[in-house]
Amino acid sequence: MLPDIYRETLARYWGFTSFRPMQEEIIESVISGTDVVGLLPTGGGKSLTYQLPPVAGEGLCLVITPLIALMKDQVTRLKTMNIKAMAIHSGMTREEVEISLDNCLYGDYRLLYVSPERLQTQLFRARLPRFNFTLVAVDEAHCISQWGYDFRPSYLHIAEIRDMMNEDVPFLALTATATPRVVEDIISRLRMKNPKVCRTSFRRPNITYIVREVEDKSTYVLRSLKKEQGSGIIYVSSRKRSKEVAETLVANNIKADFYHAGLPQEMRDRKQTSWSAGETRVIVATNAFGMGIDKADVRFVIHWDCPDSVEAYYQESGRAGRDGKPSFSVLLWSQDEKRKLADSVRIKFPPVDRIKDVYEAIGNFYQLAVGSGRNSVHDFDLWKFVSAFRFSVTETYNSLNFLQKEGYLEFTDEINNPSRVHFVVSRDDLYKFQVANEEYDRFIKLLLRTYSGMFSEFVPINEENLAARSGLAREAIYQYLLRLSSQGIIHFIPGKKSPLVIFTEERLDRSHLRISPEHYLKVKENYIERVARITDYAENKTRCRVAFLTAYFGEETGRCGLCDTCQERNELELSKYEFDMIIDKIKELLADKPLRPEELEEQTDLPREKSVKVIRWLLDHQKLVYDNNHRLTWKR
User: Fold this and answer.
1) 398 Rama sector, left if φ>0, alpha if ψ -120 to 50, beta otherwise
2) Burial of 164 (0-12, 13-18, 19+ CB in 10 A)
3) Which residues contact 3 (CB under 8 A, 6 or more apart)?
4) Which terminus of the chain faces fewer neighbouring Cβ atoms within 10 Å, N or C?
5) Which residues contact 596 (CB under 8 A, 6 or more apart)?
6) Distance between CA 199 and CA 493 in Å, rounded?
């Protein structure tokens, strides 16, 4: 039983009077010092399990996550709740990192978010033993496993920090999608001792899963959206398609918009806010749309294009129906989709020589000498890079992803870093400066009225907001900031939006770049297996969709009775027991030799009319096929 202070804190800061499934059990375990693996679905409230303990209790929680947008979003939310939190990631200067770490050491901070590659820097490790960590939370924990769908080598170094802190500090590993094999890997690689595995069911009883084999997707979607009400998401595989599909919907009087990672952050925020508020009914998006979604009344998620793994499909479809009300997850399938998935294997795995070409070119692009560059961070303009070396964009992107999986570098998607300001003088010295320089006084007062905390840390600012509040032009605001910085009053870091490349190791000579054929092949085989499983899901016409998904994650459940395959079976007017019994008997009979339909009907030893129904159903769904002698065989 949790102490009363935890429920009081839950109500005071989060406004909840009760926990969601598994949250309380996880929190009880970690505050007692037990290592925990928490498997909670998308929208299941994972963040509360590590945010509440340090706020209600004592000490500092270290949160390790690769999702920079997520950590920045959570830190911003926590600060609005008057909970002191800090984030350290690859887009920050050395001075920002040092100030942030010192604030966490000497200030009353409760959560410190760190990207995994930052854990390996000397700057962080030198201070690590001095922190009063009482919990380490590893978010997206499946990234530690080579069997997971998003393996990141930087996660393999997380366990090393156990040797630099109190051995009693519990580790909490969290993920929404992990197979039993991945769970075992998480426990082993994080060096967990007698961990508790807390899981909620992967079954989402309010979501009806449907696969529709259609060639004309636009017609199907338009007809469905005019028939069904409510808000939803349509996932597509490319930025271009997100805009095209959204324009088609708008042309047919459906309030829709598009979203992808290539849009400016302000525009992305505006689009997401409009959709969350119900002003936009449908958002058409790439998989960049997902972080920070807390809209409960999503009635449908449609996959226009098929994801390349069951994990990605399950996670994205799980954004429907978080309010517990009936919702739909629809996958649009065609033979063209199957061909594209098969072709993705070739696209995602460039030849080893091309991967080495890209690595060598990256080093030359930044003029890094062999043996230098370890932990260096660089803004990365993909288009400028591929133009300079005449590389294919797709090959380059996938080569970078493979180099990341090999641990040679980290490659982030675009990071939106707003401008930041830190006052480097004391309040007394600032007052003297204002008295002596009246032309700056009004602007400095504007800064101090608009933002707090600038004397202790770098604070994100928005030049456009300052311009609107002051009546000045944005350029005038920018010039004030530059002049105050040049006079040593503030440290001003202008904002920028750019992907990053981080050399996690020193630059190697091409001849020493080790990409083992065995490892390359293993990673490729893992990917091929994941593609095969999502293809099986899409082409399956006999097994309950829910039973298929939950079994993939190691959970056995019965038929849902609602998905498209269950609905077709329901029309046979047979119970699950009867249906399964007849199928098992048919498989058994056909294992010996092919049989004519009438022979099969007679030998099932079950009521003929029921056997006929199942045989016809199996033929319709191509599980039974005729051989050259007009005998039935089971299709393997």
Assistant:
1) alpha
2) middle
3) 56
4) C
5) 630, 631, 632
6) 43
Give me the pLDDT at residue 410, please. 84
Strands 171-175 and 133-138: parallel
Q: pLDDT by residue (tens digit) across 523-536?
A: 888 899 999 999 99
Backbone phi, psi, residue 358, to 5°: -65, -45
Q: Rounded to whole angstroms, how far apart are CA atoms 221 and 234?
A: 9
For residue 483 the two structure tokens come to: 């002049």
Q: Measured between alpha carbons, how far is residue 10 from residues 50, 56, 92, 396, 533 in Å?
A: 12, 8, 32, 47, 40
**DSSP assignments along 155-198, one per residue:** GGGGGGGGGGS-TT--EEEEES---HHHHHHHHHHTT-SS-EEE
Q: Dump pLDDT digits (tens) for 77-121.
A: 999 999 999 999 877 888 899 999 999 988 889 999 998 888 888
Give the angle subtended at the CA of 439 by the CAs of 435 and 442, to the nearest 5°: 80
Please check whether residue 592 is in contact with residue 556, taking contact to mean a CB–CB distance below 8 angstroms.
no
What is the phi/psi pair of residue 84, to 5°?
Answer: -80, 120
Res. 573 pLDDT band, cuts 50 70 90: low
User: How far apart, in whole angstroms, are the C-alpha atoms of residue 277 and residue 231?
Assistant: 10
Separation between Cα atoms, residue 418 and residue 265, nearest integer Å: 10
Q: Is 302 helix (H, G, I), strand (E, B) or coil?
A: strand
Is residue 200 within 8 Å of residue 40, measured between CB atoms?
Answer: yes
Give the residue extent of every domain in the chain: 4-199, 343-415+499-529, 419-494, 572-634
Segment (H or E) for 591: helix 576-592
Say whether pLDDT at 572 is over 70: no
Structure-block tokens of residue 610: 């029921």
The average confidence (pLDDT) of the chain is 89
Indicate the SS3 state at residue 377: strand
Fold agreement (4-199, 343-415+499-529): no
Q: Tell me how far apart the alpha carbons of residues 581 and 296 are, in angstroms, rounded to a whole number.
A: 40
